[in-house]
Amino acid sequence: MSITITHTPSAGTLLEGTARGDGANEILKARGWKWGRGLEKWYVPQSRDNTPKLQIIKETTKALTAAHHAVHVHLDHSVRNTAEVEADLAERAAQRAQHLQGVAERKAHEANEAEQAFFAAHHRLPAAGEPVKAGHHSETRHLQAIDNANTAWKNSVEADQAALQAFEKAEAAHHATGARNNPQTVSNRIEKLTAQMRQLKRSIDGYTANRATPYEREVPPASGEAKTRAQEEMAALAEQIQYWQSVQREHLKAGRIGNYSKDTISPGDYVLIGPHWHQVLRANAKTVSVDNTGRTGKAPYSSIKGHQKAEPPADQLLSS
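User: That's the sequence. What structure does it adopt?
Assistant: Structure tokens below.
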């Protein structure tokens, strides 16, 4: 039976065709593959909507072939647009939230049953804290009742903890999409994507590494397949940046964020960061330097929640 490795944007990198005892699992685990119980296939983590991790695929193919497995590889290098990716993520997040809500409700039911079992075991103990009568015919039954009550209490506590954890996971899943679109998260994502874009452009154009050090060297421009891949990644990043900038504009339009920059904020102004106002010491290109209890603190413009020229009330001002 042959093994097939596939990659698509929506499914990521998958591998199927292995069988129990064929030795493939050790090869795959050593190269970062994970077994998906729901998929009933092997997969490369974080490969969905990313370019294929060619190094992993090549090393896996080589190792499996050396172990006398026939391997077929089919890779789709296309990229889905970000709106489609985010819609897919939101749908899967909703499904996960629904699943976890069901798990939480089941755990809560189990916790209730465990609590009732504890009450029943406790009620079977002799009344009024009667001590164990050593040597009496009731000793064994009494000790067993105490042991049963202790076990039931432990089970009840563990069931309560499991239910609480399940509800916390379900709650987090319900807010996953909102957290992903949080204004600060969106701003940070744009900065990260822009930095990745600059890095790819440097690799295409060539650059000087370790500048002004004894290890300074010239890195030549990318060429061939490496250049093609870098250009494809740049195009994908440009589309992602454009999408998230549109989300950011919606936040700005809705008043969830302010359009703050060194052009709108000056030294001596006051900005609201977190729960406190800070006096501005300096407006930088990407950050604002503020008085933070006598020390200079820095914060990105995207973290500013309010701006004013007048000094705020003393109980709202964080300064020296």
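The chain has four domains: 3-75, 84-176, 181-253, 270-316.
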